[in-house]
Design a protein that fits this description.
Blueprint lengths: L1 H8 L4 E5 L2 H12 L3 E5 L11 E2 L2 H7 L18 E2 L5 E2 L3 H9 L7 E3 L2 E6 L2 E4 L4 H6 L5 H16 L18 H7 L4 H11 L13 H17 L4 E4 L5 H12 L3 E3 L6 E5 L2 E7 L2 E4 L2 E4 L8 E14 L12 E5 L10 E7 L10 E8 L5 H4 L1 H7 L4 E12 L8 E3 L10 H15 L5 H4 L12
Parallel strand pairs: 1-2, 1-14, 2-10, 7-16, 14-20
Antiparallel strand pairs: 3-4, 5-9, 6-9, 7-8, 11-12, 12-13, 15-18, 15-19, 16-17, 17-18
Helix pairs in contact: 2-10, 2-13
Amino acid sequence: MGERRKRSSKKRRKSSSKRRGQECILSGIMSVKGKKVLHMDRNVYYGGESASLTPLNDVYKRFGLPGSPPESMGSARDWNVDLVPKFLMANGQLVRMLLITQVTRYLDFKVIDGSYVFKGGKIYKVPSTEKEALGSALMGIFEKRRFQKFLVYVARFDENDPKTLEGVDPNKTTMREVYKKFGLQENVMDFTGHALALYRTDEYLDKPCLEAINKIKLYSESLSRYGKSPYLYPLYGLGELPQGFARLSAIYGGTYMLNKPIEEIVMENGKVVGVKSEGEIARCKQLICDPSYALDRVKKVGQVIRVICILSHPIHDTHDAKSCQIIIPQNQVKRQHDIYVCMISFDHNVASKNKYIAIVSTTVETDNPRNEVQAAMDLLKPIDQEFISITDLYEPTDDGTESQIFLSRSYDATTHFETTCDDIKDIYKRLMGCEFDFAEMERGQNDIVGDQD
């Protein structure tokens, strides 16, 4: 307590944050860094677009479904339904942020049971170790050996050690050339790039290989940490994450207000000076907010369709997994973007007993988005209830340094937090004028998952 009192006695620059997932994380970090932070949210719940809704009646209301959930859904209060599906990479950036800020004290996590990829109309477990590669039905016997050698190469790869590069220039050799070096065929390139490196399109193939190799290493290292899959999920839903960072901010002197309508962003001489709500102005020197609060400062760059499906069974061909991710690579369904399926269940305290929540998402490409995800929906049948949302994607039109208004990007279709964390680090750099330094905030924590059942 003594350390916290010392921190709170320091003079702080005042900033304001209108809350969504990224904004909650940033405001928690800003509070730790000594900024005086005020949170304001027009909603009555934490997390905005990335909230988890409970009870189930609220989900029905949000999506305009008449009546109440049927009795077969169990108690409505057993449900915590994510509006935006995301998993955490066990060795990824968000886990590291949670550890260094000690937000893990407020959260419990469970390892996702499996990671799968769609090929030729069937679901296969994603092989990411040498042993799994040799036993995978995704490849023939000769391809297994070649893929095994590729994984060994990736595991040893160190851009600063020429001996591990085997003639590859990390900043010049393309990933397509690396695949060719190991004789990997198109189907192996497909699941490697989309289910291990988690790229949404094939544009990465003709770019320098360093980023892709590091992404594959991250997947493998995350998998080796807990064994079942590289992904983690917080018990009681993703809404626990913004609440955890809100608590962190409060510990360091942050103030937060829910259910506060935002009437105006107040400007003077081209810079933000406050936010007007219910006739009062909260003064600030910097403002962090999501695109919906400043539509005149963003541009639309696309749309995402998400379909929340309630099931009474696990997904077929996943070995009765109570949670999983399935990636449908773009080439498998003749699209430009991948389709994602993530499933959690009663095992994560987000649904009634023996109920499952599967969420399908992808980037919209046509004027009939529902048809675009049919391949994924077919994997989930029978479906008890579905809720469809189509969300506009926005990104800021400037970096915010002149106005001191720092805008986040909309959540994309991916079912992991790595792109979201890239956005958080980008806002931090614009806001603070320096890179986010993990090492500076490191507190020596190493693990966030206890013993698994």
